[in-house]
Amino acid sequence: MNTDREQSSATDGSRPQASFPALLGCLVALLALESLTLVGLVVWLIVEAVSSAAADTASGIALLVIAALCAVWVCLTTAAAARRRSWMRGSSITWHLLVLAVAIGCFTGVTAVPQAGWVLLLVAVLGIGLVLVPSVTRATAADVQPVGTDEESAKQQRR
Questions:
Q1: Contact, 80 vs 89, CB < 8 A?
Q2: Contact yes or no for 132/92 (Cβ under 8 A)
Q3: Among 17, 30, 47, 151, which one has the highest count of C-beta atoms within 10 angstroms of its own C-beta?
Q4: 159 within some domain
Q5: Contact 27, 123 (CB under 8 A)
Q6: Looking at the domain assignment, is residue 5 inside a domain?
Q7: What domain range is 88 assigned to?
Q8: d(CA 126, CA 27)
Q9: Which residues of the chain have pLDDT under 50?
Q10: Using one digit for the tens of pLDDT, what is the confidence trace for 104-135?
């Protein structure tokens, strides 16, 4: 039995839980798949920007920058989920709400692509659902100490 996590100090930011919930693993896998997809999209947009003459260069560059920022965001959220950081829950829900908005957009308009909309809708609902599962919430809960329990407060109280 590995006791490294149990003996870790509070300064390294690790949590002493012994097990990694399966649904948290599913969330990490989903976020990792989304990260890889976004990185692939960024690479594809770069290739398209370099190889073909765009009708509107400014729009192409803007789309590339937004896709790159989203890729960085989801990669950081994936790493935070794997490390059980509490802030990843808000980040993941926000990301999946944006995916939900894009999914709804895929069902409407002149260029509607309902098949893509259904895939994005499934990913968004699954991602939000996994974040809200109690075992995932518990595993990523922040360890908040009551006010005055840190070492500095203890030293001041002794004086």
A1: no
A2: no
A3: 30
A4: no
A5: no
A6: no
A7: 20-141
A8: 9
A9: 1-11, 16-17
A10: 999 998 889 999 999 999 999 999 999 999 99
